[in-house]
Model the fold of this input.
Amino acid sequence: MGEVQQKNILQVEDLHVQYGQVQAVKNVSFYVEQGEIFGLLGPNGAGKTSTLSAIEGLIRQQSGTVTVAGYDTLKDSRHARAAMGVQLQSTSFQPELNVAEILELYAGIYGLSLNKQQLQALLNEINLSDAENKKFGQLSGGQQQRVSLAITTIHDPKLVLLDEPTSGLDPQSRRQLWSRIESIREKGNAVVLTTHSMEEAEAVCDRISIIDHGRIIATGTPQILIDKHRNDPDVIAVSRRGKITLEDVFIALTGSAIRA
Ligand SMILES: Nc1ncnc2c1ncn2[C@@H]1O[C@H](COP(=O)(O)OP(=O)(O)OP(=O)(O)O)[C@@H](O)[C@H]1O
Ligand SMILES: [Mg+2]
Done:
């Protein structure tokens, strides 16, 4: 069976995720096309990580289907997983291994072998050419994040899933990460990311979904969502300095109460 050629790299249909009595994801459907950066936004506990975990096959959905690069993640999990690169909400690697060892280890897991030149090229790409002998545990948060993204994309996956990839990064590191995310898009691959930064969503995402209490409550380009809601009284009421932003729309749609 050949690989299915299709525009939608990811198709999520009527996804439900449950932990015991907690229904974390309800009736979630969305798609992501080739060459698209898709943002999943929502307050704490909204169901973002649960949605990603079901797509990644780390947890099994109660119902619904997920198709990655044409492969059903339950019926054809091996092919589906091979098409994905996954970065978890907090990723840590063996702190005693150095950067070169970690890159070689994970390349090996994907059946790739890195020669000296390829390793150097990869280190250059993530601006860590001087740090190849540094232990992972000695790197700064931003440097660790760069290593982590390099590993996530080491096998050139069609779909890259990033759970809060820029949390805790300084503005320079964040911009650099955005560029790397955009270069994934330029190769024709697709990215799904979660973020709490509306600025980030506006800057990098082609389309977003806002998820709250496990349900998708809005989907579109950031600009379309702003334009659609700019005259809502709730949006105007929360806007600051007279300019309507994606954050105003987000707060008006999800409410201003802090989540437990
Ligand atoms: N392993 C688990 N067992 C039980 N409940 C869980 C588990 N993981 C998540 N939940 C619950 O499921 C809901 C969704 O959690 P999830 O981690 O998907 O939210 P999130 O949108 O990623 O939040 P955050 O922005 O804080 O990362 C929450 O009510 C959470 O408490
Ligand atoms: Mg989460």
Q: What stands out?
A: The pocket of magnesium ion (ligand 2) is lined by residues 48-49, 89, 163 (CB under 6 Å). The first strand starts at residue 8 and ends at 19. Residues 221-255 form one domain. The chain has a mean pLDDT of 93.
